[in-house]
Amino acid sequence: MAKETPFSAVTRTMIDNWLQTSPEDAAKPQTVYNDILGHLSIKMRLTLFTVTSGNPKKWHMKAIRHSGFTSRILNINKIFADCYVEDFKDQKYMEDAVIPRLRQVMESQQPSMELVKTRLFGINLGYDRILIPQKNTTRPQWVISSSYAQFLLSPPQQHEKLDVADEAIVQLLIEGATAKEIAETLGVSPRTVEHRVERLKIRYGARNTVHLIAMLVTAHAEKMAEP
What is the pTM of this model? Predict the structure, then answer.
């Protein structure tokens, strides 16, 4: 699996492109994001909000690049299908985590980057997000949103850094996927998945795959129980 491009590098490229635009000659959003489309990892997503009025709920959101990873707990790509903000199924999520920050970047016409911790359909999730508004002499006509998602279930021993492939495998193991299903989801061979699972068993001292999954589930339950 190819090495993951850091989200910081993706955001830096977009900011550099945005800095070269001018409010007097309002740029198209592609000017900002075209250079990074080939560098988005499976954990990154790119969305375009089209501004048509002063009411954020009337704005349209369109996925320019879906996340390459789909959890069985939440099908992010299906949930964030192209729609108007007012038609999004979880309006509380929009009102708490999206609309206030969209308003802010629209008013300031300055990018904003932050770690978002919120709930979507009752599930805790967190992600890094950058919002980039169009420079315009009046009101921006679009806002780009790019995010780098954390997986919904935490792997054990958070102090140990897992690469993106192992994080995905851990997530899917916890959700009950087989090696074949994991391979199909990640676009790799079952043999590659089996090899990585063997390395994870050694890393965590698991006797077998069942023991490894039990360790992962237990660690997740303990993490969720923390105040």
Answer: 0.69
